[in-house]
C-alpha cells in the first residue's frame, strides 16, 4: 500500500508581488512526489473553527477567520489577510490532522504543508497562524487515540510557539534543534533545546541531532511529529547554517530510523533556498526516504 500524504496547494493565498515567502514550493513538491509514483496524494480537508479551538483562543480564531484581526497582529504573522489565506490556513491544519489519524492507523503519514511552529495560543508569528502540531496532539489525545506525544523540530528556527503551548503539558515532549542567533530572537523553553552557532556544518549538526534523539525515545511517546524544515541548508536565505543536501538527508535518516517503531507524522517547515528547487529537492528527499525506510521495515517484520 502506498503511503498516504495530504497536500493543500489547491488553495493558494493572494500574496503581493515580491513577497519573500516561497508559496510555490508546495505545488512543486506535490508535483515532484507525484512523479515518483510512491505516494497516495490526497487534498487536505478544511479544519473548522471548533477543531482549531482545541488549542487556540476562540476570539483569536474567530477574528482571523472573519478578517477582524488587528493589522499589527497580521503584520506579525507576515501575510496580508484574504479569504484565500483563510482557506489555505484551514487546509494546512486539516492536512496535519488527517495525517495524524492516518499515522495512528497505518504507521506513518505526512502533509506537504504544516509545521507552523511559531503560532502561539492567541497570536501568530513568522508566517504561522495556527499551530497544527499542537492542534493534532490535543485532538488525538481528546479522542483517546494517544496518551504521550513528542515533537522533533529540526527547522533552523526554534519552535517557540510549540514550546510555549506545550510547556505545561507533562504528556508532551518538545525537542528543538535550531540556530542560536536566528529568529525568534526571544526564545521559549522546549523540553530540550539544542542551539547551534552560525555556520555549523554537517559533522557537528548530525552529532548534535544524534545526541538529542534518544531523549525523545526515552519519553516513550505514542506518536512522533517530525517538523522537517530544510532551512538549515547552506543555500537558505534565512538559515545561517552550513548544512549540505547530503547532511540534510543524513539528518532525516537519523530521525526515521530512530522512530521506526512509532507512528510518525511528517510535516514541512521552513525552506527559503534560492533557487527554490534546492528547497524542493530537500523536501522531496525527506518523503522519499521515509517511504523507502518504512517500506523496508514493513517487509522485514512480515
What does this protein structure show overall?
The protein has one domain: Arginase, Chain A, CATH 3.40.800.20. The chain is of the alpha/beta class. It is globular. The C terminus is likely disordered. The chain contains 10 helices and 8 strands. Strand 1, helix 1 and strand 2 form a beta-alpha-beta unit. The longest helix is centred in the C-terminal third of the chain and has 25 residues. Helix content is 43%, strand content 13%. An 8-stranded parallel sheet has the order 2-1-3-8-7-4-5-6, with helices on both faces.
What does this entry show, briefly?
The protein is of the alpha/beta class. It has helices at residues 24-36, 49-52, 58-65, 71-77, 83-106, 132-142, 160-165, 202-218, 245-258, 276-300, and strands at 4-7, 40-43, 108-111, 149-153, 172-179, 192-196, 223-227, 264-267. It has a single domain (4-300), classed as Histone deacetylase domain (Arginase, Chain A, 3-Layer(aba) Sandwich).
CATH 4th-level superfamily: Histone deacetylase domain
Helix content: 40-55%
Q: Given the helix and strand composition, which structural class is it?
A: alpha/beta
Supply the CATH class: Alpha Beta
Q: Kindly report the CATH topology.
A: Arginase, Chain A
Number of helices: 10
User: Radius of gyration over alpha carbons?
Assistant: 17 Å
Q: What's the arrangement of strands in the largest beta sheet?
A: 2-1-3-8-7-4-5-6
Q: What best-fitting shape do the alpha-carbon axes yield?
A: globular
Which residues form runs of ≥5 with pLDDT under 50? 297-302
Total E-strand runs: 8
Distance between the termini: 14 Å
Element order: H for helix, E for strand:
EHEHHHHEHEHEEHEHEH
Strand content: 5-15%
Major beta sheet, specifics? 8 strands, parallel
Which second-level CATH architecture applies? 3-Layer(aba) Sandwich
Look at the structure and give the mean pLDDT. Answer: 96
Amino acid at each position: 500500500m502506498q503511503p498516504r500524504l495530504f497536500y493543500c496547494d489547491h488553495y493558494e493565498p493572494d500574496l503581493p508581488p515580491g513577497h519573500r515567502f516561497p508559496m510555490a514550493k508546495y505545488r512543486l513538491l506535490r508535483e515532484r512526489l507525484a512523479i515518483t509514483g510512491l505516494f497516495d496524494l490526497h487534498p487536505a480537508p478544511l479544519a473548522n473553527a471548533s477543531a482549531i479551538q482545541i488549542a487556540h483562543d476562540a476570539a483569536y480564531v474567530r477574528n482571523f477567520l472573519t478578517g477582524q484581526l488587528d493589522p499589527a497582529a497580521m503584520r506579525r504573522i507576515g501575510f496580508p489577510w484574504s479569504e484565500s489565506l483563510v482557506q489555505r490556513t484551514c487546509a494546512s491544519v486539516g492536512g496535519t490532522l488527517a495525517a495524524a489519524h492516518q499515522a495512528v492507523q497505518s504507521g506513518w503519514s505526512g502533509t506537504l504543508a504544516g509545521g507552523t511552529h511559531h503560532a502561539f495560543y492567541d497570536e501568530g508569528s513568522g508566517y504561522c497562524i495556527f499551530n497544527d502540531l499542537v492542534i493534532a496532539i490535543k485532538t488525538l489525545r481528546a479522542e483517546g487515540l494517544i496518551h504521550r506525544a513528542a515533537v522533533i523540530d529540526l527547522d533552523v528556527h526554534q519552535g517557540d510557539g510549540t514550546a510555549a503551548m506545550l510547556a505545561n503539558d507533562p504528556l508532551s515532549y518538545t525537542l528543538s534543534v535550531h540556530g542560536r542567533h536566528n529568529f525568534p530572537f526571544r526564545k521559549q523553553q522546549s523540553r530540550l533545546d539544542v542551539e547551534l552557532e552560525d555556520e555549523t556544518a554537517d559533522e557537528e549538526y548530525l552529532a548534535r541531532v544524534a545526541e538529542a534523539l534518544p531523549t525523545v525515545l526515552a519519553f516513550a511517546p505514542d506518536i512522533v511529529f517530525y517538523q522537517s524544515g530544510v532551512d538549515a541548508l547552506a543555500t537558505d536565505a534565512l538559515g545561517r547554517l552550513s548544512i549540505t543536501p547530503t547532511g540534510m538527508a543524513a539528518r532525516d535518516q537519523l530521525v526515521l530510523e530512530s522512530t521506526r517503531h512509532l507512528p510518525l507524522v511528517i510535516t514541512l517547515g521552513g525552506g527559503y533556498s534560492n533557487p527554490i528547487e534546492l528547497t524542493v529537492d530537500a523536501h522531496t528527499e525527506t518523503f522519499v526516504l521515509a517511504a523507502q525506510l518504512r517500506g523496508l521495515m514493513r517487509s522485514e517484520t512480515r
